[in-house]
Structure formats: C-alpha cells, structure tokens
Design a protein that fits this description.
Length: about 650
C-alpha cells in the first residue's frame, strides 16, 4: 500500500528534528567571544514529546569539552555533565572540534524468554556526533533517545592505546532525592535514601535512582562485555556529581572500541519501573534456538536444608517429591553436592564417577522435575575445567547451573563471562549467576541467563523493609533478580510479614523464581503454598499500580488473562488503597493478607480502575490474583 506523501514527510522530519545543530552565544561566565555548539536529541514518539526525555549535547569551542544534559517536559533531569574518555595516546575529553553528524532510526522487535514482558519493541532515534583533536584522533559520541531513556557511548574508530579512564559523570540537582547502594564487588549493598548532595563520600552501584523536577531517573549500563571494564559511581559529599569509575585502572584494548552504554532510564515512576531500556540497548540474541530455555518456579534447598541437604541424595529426592507434588518445574541443588563429604568446600576429584547427581536427575525427570545445580566459579575458570564440567552436566540431563562467587567486574572477569555465556548456550544449560554483576543487557543477548543475584536478597540478615520496597525501582528495573523469596521459616531474620513474603514472588521478577522456604513452612501456610502453585515465572506484561521507593511498591504482572499482584510496604499498619489499573471490565480479585491467626484470603469483584482496599500490617504486604469475572466464576485458581 502506498504511503501518503504527507505521512512520509512527517516521519522523515520527526527523525531529523530529533537532532538539531545550532550555535548559541556563550554564557556570561565564559570568555568573551566564546561560542557553544548544541545538538538536541529526542525520541521518535512525537505525540508524547512533552513527556519524553530530551538530551542536549554541547561543545564549548573554547575548551573543546563536551557535556550532556537531559530534560523532560522542559524540566531538569540531568544537569550539564562532562563527557569524554582518555587513552594512552589520546585525550578525547578536551580540545575537540566538531566534524559531522549522522542520524538513524532504530526500530526493532524481539522476544524475550523472561523479564517484565515477553514481546519487546525498540524505537529510538540515534545520533552519531563525530569529533577530532588537533592531532587527528577521532571520537564518535553516539546518543540514543527513546520514550523511556537516554543513553550514550563512545566509539573510537582506531586504536589509541589502552583506556586510562572516562571523564563521564552525572550532575544531579543537589536536592534531588537519591536511592543509592554502596558499591560491593558482589553488588549486594543495601539501598538507602539520601539527597544527591548529602550522600556520604564513597562509591555506589551504578544502579542509582534519583527524583528531580523532570521525574525519576535510574542510572544504568548496557552492553558490558570483556572488551571493557565495569563501572561504578564515585561521589564526594556536598556535590550532586556522580563520576564514572571503572573497575580497572587501565583497560587494555586491541583495536577500535565501542564502550558500554551509559544509560539513564527516565520518566515517571511507572515508566521507569516498566522499562526494558537496558535490554533494548543490548545486541540481539546470539542463541538461535531458544526452545530449550524454559523459565519456571524452583524449589531451592539452601535456606531449606543447608549443607546437609546439599550432600544428601535422600534429602534431595524428598525435595524433588515435594516439587513434583506441587507441580513446580524445577528443584535446585546448592553447594556441597560435589564436595568431599568429610571436607566442606573441597571438590571431590572423582566427582564425575562418585556423584549421585545422575541418579537424582533421572529420578526427577521421571517425576517431571528438572534439576538445577550450584557450581563455584573457580571450577569453571579454565578451558580444561569447562570442558570437563559442562558436557558432563549436559549429558546427565541437568537443566541449568547456578554459578557463584565471581565477585568482580574487572575486564578479566568480564572476559570469563563472555566465554561461559557462549559455552553454556552451546551445552543447553540455563544460567543463574550469584556473587555476580547485575544485568546490563545480558538477558537479551544471552537469553539462557534466567536471573542474576547482584542484590541484598533473602539470605541477608540486615535487610530493612525500606530496602525491600526500593528494589522494584532500582535493581529489578534492569533485569531479573534472584532475591529468593518465600523463606517463611526465617522469622526474625527478615523484616517483613508473611503476606509481604508471598507478595515478593510477584513484586520481584526472576526467570527462575527460587522459593527459599521449607516444605514444612509451606504446608503450614496453605494459602501461600497454593499461591506459589499458580504464580508464573514469565510474564506478558508488567505495571506499577502504586509505589514510592522506600515506602511501598505494588506491581501487577500478567500471565495470560490473569493479573498477579504483589505489594510490599515499609512502616506502620494501614489500609492500602491500590488503583486496579489492569484494564476495563469486571475482575474477580483474590488477595492474601496477614490476619490475627495467619494468612487470610479475601475475594471481591471490582471494575478496572476501582480502588482495591487491603489491610496491611507493620512492614507488611499482600499478594493477589485478578481474573476476568462473569457469573459463575468463584476463584482465579486453576
């Protein structure tokens, strides 16, 4: 069908208008006669332009320095912030002159195996601005803009020696609210609230959330591989500046270089929470056949049974029996199964012939349960070790591996990630990374990665209810999160109520949702157990119904025609009022809340858009299912 000329011209103009090259007078504090060149970059969704983030790249002709700022609806998101990179042979942070620009529309569709929704659409404007130093060294600054974010990366089209660092930083309004996690190599710092300026001097995870006049912004990274080094944020108290600091003081590079994307997920809180921006920036899947990759719920046995369970075939068969009874698709065997029975943490050199794992896998297979096994990274550290482990696990019929204790984002470890991702895909093994980096687009490129830890999860004894309500807006925005909810037996070691613990299975997304409780604790809470029987691990859609970091988070995730609800709260008891914005029509809503004598289930019929009222205890929460209602429908369970 022919496209009307008016429509074609409008589309072309929209794309070109996304990048505007102008020259403006210098600010008063610049030298007389100085000029600044400015390029504006915004997304292609022109109908919603007032609500979309807009980037502004500036070049000061006096210093040759670049800066980038972000606004939304005319209000500040990121103040002008330095942009640049320094290598052994070229300082590409100053004395730059503009060469040319190139624009293109990025329009892609892909299907995910896990995450907030399975079907994805990528629609971004991309502007490539080329600069050069007086000596001829060239820097391309690539900026992308979409309805939910701004990102940039550096492209060095020639070899300029090893990277010595970036001058990249993010300048936030000093009074911007900030939710930050102190940096740890395992990314398991607890989130706390500050303002941008009052946060203590130190290093923070780059998954930092800020609230400004322009809305919420989550800083993130995408397309991080072994060609580069992982980033964290360095901050000095009293300023709103957060500098990019790399894990390596020097990053070796052997040719042209494209750095990871520095991403800013931006919008109202619902937009940020629902965003797949960091996945959308990443390269397309490198796994051609993904039919063997199947998300699911998992009976996890570490917090349920510890070391003894990890070294007992009988215990593991009992767990398999329970998973089969509940129709949970997987059971995970944690640390100890291949260690010497009389020497904890020491690998049995004859594990391939001594192990009872093949017997367990076959036992579980006959009952319709897949087995996932824990393995220490040190046992997969060399080509020889991987050639021993991975084919053996595949031959046994193991469905996935939980790899633990990487504890580094240095380039050498990222190169190991590159290798293990290729090899686990080749051997049809799903992956759960613990003691790890956080998702940085990895799940789009390598869809067998079902989840990653990189979070202060259920195993921690120092978590707060405020931390739990912050995670849906920070760590879980950027990808699947193995928090391992459901540890009912850890009374006194977790800060939340039983109903909140049930709600975490929906509030937190994970392609392999590891239930951390004991069979006895499930059987003592039949409403929770039956809810776990229903909850999927792959979602068709995700929506934020209500929330504020550190205070409350209520998410709705759709599986088929049912919406699953998960709410977590920090603070005193209340009657929560939650807008049921899941679609028109009438819905049967079943909720699980805390009662005086345990968990209680309520049922009511509501119209889409009505307010759902739920009584919440101190640091409590709730879980629920909403299904289309018609006369005769009395339950959402299936």
């Amino acid at each position: 069908m022919a496209v009307p000329i008016r429509t074609a011209v409008a589309a072309l103009c929209a794309g070109l208008a996304a990048t505007l090259f102008i020259t403006v007078p210098a600010r008063a504090d610049q030298d007389a006669g100085s000029r600044v060149q400015v390029w504006a970059v915004s997304g292609p969704e022109r109908a919603a332009a007032a609500h979309e983030p807009r980037a502004r790249v500036s070049l000061d002709d006096t210093t040759g320095r670049l800066s980038l700022s972000v606004s939304r609806g005319g209000r500040t998101v990121i103040e002008p912030s330095p942009v640049g990179i320094v290598t052994q042979q070229a300082d590409l942070s100053q004395d730059l002159r503009f060469l040319h620009r190139k624009d293109r529309l990025v329009d892609e569709r892909y299907r995910s195996k896990s995450g907030k929704r399975l079907e994805r659409r990528v629609l971004m404007n991309e502007t490539r601005l080329s600069f050069a130093t007086a000596a001829g060294a060239r820097l391309d600054l690539v900026v992308r803009a979409s309805a939910d974010g701004i990102a940039y990366r550096y492209v060095l089209p020639a070899k300029y020696g090893d990277v010595l660092g970036e001058t990249s930083a993010f300048n936030l309004p000093p009074d911007a609210s900030a939710w930050l996690s102190t940096y740890r190599a395992d990314n398991e710092g607890r989130f706390a609230q500050y303002t941008a300026a009052t946060a203590p001097t130190g290093e923070y995870s780059d998954q930092a959330l800020f609230a400004t006049g322009g809305g919420y912004t989550l800083l993130a990274e995408s397309d991080l591989t072994g060609t580069y080094s992982g980033a964290r944020l360095a901050h000095d108290q009293g300023t709103g500046t957060y500098r990019i600091k790399l894990a390596d003081t020097t990053v070796p590079t052997d040719g042209p270089l494209a750095t990871p994307w520095r991403a800013m997920v931006t919008g109202d809180l619902a937009t940020v929470t629902r965003s797949t921006f960091t996945d959308d920036l990443a390269p397309a899947s490198k796994v051609a056949d993904t039919s063997w990759i199947r998300p699911g719920t998992v009976l996890w046995t570490w917090l349920a049974g510890g070391r003894e369970a990890g070294q007992s075939l009988a215990a593991q068969k009992a767990y398999v029996d329970y998973a089969a009874e509940r129709h949970w698709p997987y059971e995970a065997v944690d640390a100890g199964w291949y260690f010497k029975t009389d020497e904890w943490d020491t690998t049995d050199p004859n594990w391939q012939t001594n192990s009872w794992m093949p017997e367990l896998v076959e036992y579980a297979r006959a009952k319709g349960v897949g087995i996932i096994v824990w393995i220490h990274q040190r046992d997969l550290d060399t080509p020889e070790e991987r050639a021993q482990w991975l084919p053996t696990l595949e031959r046994w019929g193991v469905k996935g591996v939980k790899i633990d204790f990487m504890d580094s984002e240095a380039q050498s470890m990222l190169q190991w990630y590159d290798t293990i991702l290729q090899e686990t895909a080749a051997h049809h093994l799903m992956v759960n990374f613990h003691g790890s980096t956080v998702p940085k687009g990895i799940q789009r490129t390598w869809p067998q990665v079902m989840t990653l830890e990189g979070v202060a999860g259920e195993e921690k004894r120092t978590n707060t209810a405020a931390h739990l309500t912050t995670l849906p807006f920070t760590r879980n925005v950027i990808g699947s999160m193995d928090f391992t909810p459901g540890a009912f037996q850890r009374v006194g070691l977790r800060p939340n109520s039983d109903a909140a613990e049930v709600g975490l299975t929906v509030a937190y997304e994970s392609g392999l949702q590891m239930f951390a409780g004991t069979p006895e604790s499930y059987d003592a809470r039949l409403l929770a157990r039956d809810y776990f029987d229903q909850v999927p691990a792959a979602w068709d859609d995700t929506r934020l119904l209500a929330g504020r970091p550190g205070q409350e988070a209520v998410l709705a995730r759709r599986g088929g025609d049912r919406w699953f609800l998960g709410g977590v709260y920090a603070g005193t008891a209340r009657t929560a009022e939650v807008p049921l914005t899941i679609g028109s029509g009438r819905w049967l809503v079943e909720t699980i809340r805390d009662g005086a004598d345990g968990l209680v289930q309520d049922r009511q019929v509501l119209r889409g858009g009505d307010s759902l009222s739920v009584d919440v205890v101190d640091n409590g929460g709730f879980a629920g299912i909403a299904c289309p209602w018609r006369p005769g429908v009395t339950t959402c369970s299936r």
